[in-house]
Each structure stands twice: as C-alpha cells, then as structure tokens.
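Comment on this:
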Amino acid sequence: MIGIAGLPLWWLLGVASLVPLALAVPLCWDLRSRRRVSLPPHAGWWLLFLLWVLLGLGTLWAAAPQAVDDGGTGRLLVFGYRLAWYLSCTVLLVWIGNTPADRLPDRVVHRILAWVFVVAVAGGLLGLLAPDLAITTLAERMLPGGLRSNGFVSTLVSAETADIQKVLGDPEPRPKAPFPFTNTWGSVISLTLVFFVAAAVTSRSRARWLAGPVLAVAAVPVVLSLNRGLWLALGVGALGLLVLLALRRHHAALAALIAVVVVGGIAVTSTSLGDTVSSRLDNPHSNERRSQLLVTTVDSMTRGSPVVGFGSTRDVAGTFTSIAGGATPSCPACGVPPLGTQGQLWLVLFSQGWIGTLFFLAFFVLALRRTWRCRTLNQTVATFVLVIFLLQLTVYDTLGLPMMIVMTAVALAWREERSGTSLRRPSGRALVAAAAVAVAVLGGAVGAAATRGEDSHVASTVTVALTPSPTYLDVGDVAREADSGTLVRPPDPATIDTEAALLRSESAMERAGQRVGLAPATLRADIGVAAPPLSTVLDLTVTTSRRTDAAAAALAVAEEYLAERSRFLETRRTDLVARLGERLAAVDPGDPAWAATRTYLRAAIDHLTTHRPEVGSVIRVGPARVVGTERGVPVTSGLAVGGLAGLALVRIRPPRRQWRWRRWRR
C-alpha cells in the first residue's frame, strides 16, 4: 500500500509501472509465512484464466490472420510484463483477504486509494496547465539504448503530463499524469472515486469537508479530458448511487446528491465545459477505427486460435484502407493499433481465446453476484468498482493499477465475508494432478497428430521497388517551366493497393503460371503481398509445395507483374500523349498569347515520347525457406482442452468409489 501511495514519486523516477509489481514479492513472502492461506470464492475461474495466460507461450509466435508476422524478443517482453501484472494482482487479492482487519483496517485501504484519486486529479490539472511538460526520468537514463528505443518500454518509463490529440479538430491536451496512458488516467480516476467517497463518508475528521471542493476541482480535468469512457462510468455510478439511496430511504443523502447533480449540471452547461462535452459527443473521433479493429481482432482470433488465443497482441498489416498505410508525424492516428488493444476485453479475447475470456469474465461477474446487494460498505464499494470495471472493459486497457484497484475492492468484500477455500489440498491431490496432466498430454498429442499428415511448404519472398507513375509519366523540366497552371495534367498516381491488384491480374497470373507449371488460380492463392508503411515497395511472397521451386515461382510472378505494369503505364502514356496532341492541334499557331501553351505542349510530348524510365525492378530474391505446418496452436489447444477434460473427469468422479478406494488403500 505504501508503494501505491508513493505514486507521484515513482512517476517522477519513471518506475510507477514497476513498483506495484515489485511489491508483490514481499507480499508473497508474507503469505508464505502464514499458517493458513485461503482463496476467495470462485477463485478457480481466475486460476484457470492464469493457466490460459501461461498457455499463451505456446502460441506467442504463431502467425495470426490479418497480422504482421514479425515476432521477436519484444513480444516475449510484453508477454512477461502482462503476466507479472496478472500475478501481482492475484497476490494482492490473496494477501488482503488473508490479512486481519486489525492489521490492515478497511479505512486505511480506503484512504490510500482516496489519496490516489487526489493524485490523479492533481495530475489532470497539471496536464491541462503544462501539457508539453516531459521529464527525463532516472529510469530513462539508466535503461540501455535498445530497451529505450522500444516504444512500449519508453512509454512506461517516461514522465509526460498529457497527450496532444486532435479530437475536436484542434490540438487539445488530454491529461495522463501520473500514468503512462490517458485511458489509464480515466480508468483510475473513476475507480478510485468510489474509495474517495467511501473514505469521506466514514471519516470523522474535519478533513471530510474538503471532499466537496476536491470533487468540484476534479470536474475540470474530467470534462476537458474528452474521455467518454470516464464520463459513462461516472454517469452510471451517479445513477447507481441515486437508486441505492432511494432503496435505502436515505432521504437527506438522496436530496443532497440530487442537489449536487443539479448544481453541477447547471455549472457545467453554463460554462465552456458544457460546450466541450457537446462538441465531444458530436465528434466520435475514433469510433469507426475502434469498430474496424474490434471486428478484425475477433475474426483473426476466431479463425486462427479460438481456444487459447495468440498469447499477446499482433501488429496489423498496413491499415484498414491500404496495405502500405501507416502513421505519419502529421497524422499519428492514421496508423492502426495492434490487434487485441483498445480495451481489456479485446486483449483477453485475442490473447487467451474464447475459453480464456469466459474464465476471466466469470470470476468478476461471480464476484459482483456476491456483493450486489450492498449490505455493507465494503460490498457497496466492491459493487460500484466492479460495475465500472466491467463497463470499461470494452474501451480501456485496464491491466495494471486499475485491475489492482478492482482486486483490492474484491478482497475487502471477501475478507468481510470470512469465506473462501483453504489452500490445503485433499489427500488425493496426486491422483487429481496425475489424471489432469495425463488427459492434457493426451490432448496435446491429439493436436500434434492432427497436423502430422500435413505437408510442409516452401516459401520465397521477392522485393520489388516501383517507379511511381507520376515519375514514369513526367512531362519534363522544359514543360514544367512553361506551365501556366491551366494545362493538361498527368493522370493521378496509382496507389500501392492498385499495384497489388495488378500483380494478381489474370494475364500476369497466366503467364507466370505457364513459366512454373502452376494453374493461375493455384498460384494466385499461394501469393501474399505486403508493403512497408508509406513506401513504394512491394514484398511478394509465394508459398508452394516442396515439388515446386518457390524462388523461381516468386521471381516469375514479380517479372510478369512488372511486364504487366509496363504495358499498363505505356497505355496511360499513350493516352496522355494523345490528349496533349489534341490540345496542341486546337491551339492557334499564329496567336502569340498561346506561345507558352505551345511550348509546354511540344516539350511535354517530346519528353514523353523519348524518355521511358524503368517501371520498377526486382531488388531482392529471398532464398527458399521451409515453412512447416503451424503446430503451436493445435498442440497448445489440445493441451488446454485435455487439461479441462481431465479436471472435469476428476470433478465428476463418484465420491463413494473414492471413499472405497481410500479405504482399500489403507
């Protein structure tokens, strides 16, 4: 808790994202010294989810549909970071639940997380007042250059107060201090607000009267953050509190809350804050991109690895509009976020598959089921925190401090119940483990056998550099000098996506197929086309059976594509020359007013008919490489399903037979 309360200091040092992970070590050591350690109700669902997270190692480097296959050590680093957070949240949950209230009072926990709310409000104000403030942290200075250049790591160890984004058309600061992301700031401030209110209600000191001014000040960064997820969470929370007070017949508190909501609403709508809210609701900004990313994420996971997912996120190939699209300094939002981002639910779904997502949601929904009656303060806090958390799953990546806050609320409610399951295993634990492992291994063997009969393939990648069509159809320097701005212009350039379509054209496929002895339809199905972001380079990959020379097939496709492109551009050149000739014939040769036009047209026609640059060239032919059948997904899925089957068999074992077996053993 001290580590969480020291958040401002850790942020300035660049270790705010790592200190909570480090604190799990002493907590785990303290649990080890306890005589008896219990787990919360329905903890089995969470343990199964953690098992699914670990199984992600088996699919971490598997190729995902519609994603870039660029896995490296960075993917393992991100996987380890997320796993550490899941484990740290688990340790905190178990530690709080097993720590007596006299050693860790509820009010202490409430006040610590209320302090985090105050820190988040102060960070929001700082982000609005000094949005360009960036501090070079100690962690940044100490990190090796290789790690510091990693974008994910750099974001975690930096100390920036806000992100500048063009949400409403003009650059606007969106506060995030003291957190690495703006959405993390929004998630934390909405979750800790519940603890702030609980601490204010139960406090008997004069400091409780400061709660009103703090909430009034908090409204400024909350509104100006343009964070719709935060607004939704606060709106649902206020509505839930109104319903709760009405059901409990707390008339005075209900009247006070209604008065606060009315006065706050009038204050917001009568100031520029109201215009900000209205403009934000009228400008969805990222809705379309989020929906496209969601559809692609679910489709890729369902087609590629529906049982255990892909272990981590994947970068998208190009953008949703172009295979060579990407972010630029003037348009950072033009890039597409990785698959499995823009919401914790989508991260879990893509990384752990449908079954892992079921385990994840089951734990939190069942925890909410135990607290929703709000009989005590801790149950009320847990209910509001869980509802807000579930609302945020689709829009916020809540892994980190937000999930740790949720686990704290669940742990306090569980500790109050004095229920749970002891970690002491039954005497037949060896049999249970052996049965589950045996069936899991059998499932993995079945998964491996399912791909054993499939032939491996051979792939080769050819890189083609293209001459942009405006260069190929250039009219020359002389014509440009005589250009009056009203003359015939060259045709618009072809996009890289048009080039990819031309590569797969029927005529190009037919000629390439004849060279390597493959049917055009078969060859077209074996081709994969990619392009580096914002480039005029095509990476053409041909995957064939071992009986076909993949390198020769890829080179044949590239050469026939370039030949087809030459014919295509030559047709455009001929059409342009004809149009310029028609325009020249229509100009009066004796009129001096048209002298510049005649000079332009003659120079352009002369240049186009005498200069013919290359349409492109093959700059690299990759060696043929064996592409084995992907076994990571089927084997890991088989292990997972087999393990579940083993656990199910043990659970449904008749208890009387078990008793007889134990008696016979004695």
User: Anything to note?
Assistant: The first strand starts at residue 38 and ends at 39.
